[in-house]
């Protein structure tokens, strides 16, 4: 099971995008779309500080890392939850876990596995620190309960060499189509295969058909 397109966009929108390493509210070095060293490579504590020289390349790198991280968080939710999930419920749980890392120990997971979806939805708000995260928890709860997805563009924020993000004004806004194409990762290009000489449209088949026509006319 994977996040839906709308769920993936909701998660990216909640996280925002900073194409350089920054200090989050807990003073943890973070990069791109909420990536920390706890999620694996790259190690955010050793990354070059400040904005990348090539903004487009920095945005692509942020999405590349996000794409790799997301698979781990999706798998963790599937391991923790023992009951079938609707797509919007899964989207909400992955967003919650991506932000908190708490899916295995959260009360909402215990309630959900016990079959009490009402209590599970209410328990999203148990994870409400710092206070600035409450709107996100409410959005995840509403997505889990009602399938209500947020909308809008994806902000890209600048960061200085000390790790401070300038939230006064985004330096770019990505459309949903742009963000989705980047978040899904590069699509594999099917190889172009030469026609098989034994296939119906191969040259041997065409040659055989030509001689067969000549014989019938003789």
TrEMBL record:
Top-rank EC class of the record's enzyme: hydrolase
Entry's Gene Ontology molecular function annotations: lysozyme activity
A Gene Ontology BP annotation from the UniProt entry: peptidoglycan catabolic process
EC number: 3.2.1.17
Catalytic activity: Hydrolysis of (1->4)-beta-linkages between N-acetylmuramic acid and N-acetyl-D-glucosamine residues in a peptidoglycan and between N-acetyl-D-glucosamine residues in chitodextrins
The keyword Membrane is assigned to this record: no
Family matches, as SUPFAM superfamilies: Lysozyme-like (SSF53955)
Keyword list, A-Z: Antimicrobial, Bacteriolytic enzyme, Glycosidase, Host cytoplasm, Hydrolase
Protein family per UniProt: Belongs to the glycosyl hydrolase 24 family.
Protein name in the entry: Lysozyme
Organism: Pseudotabrizicola algicola
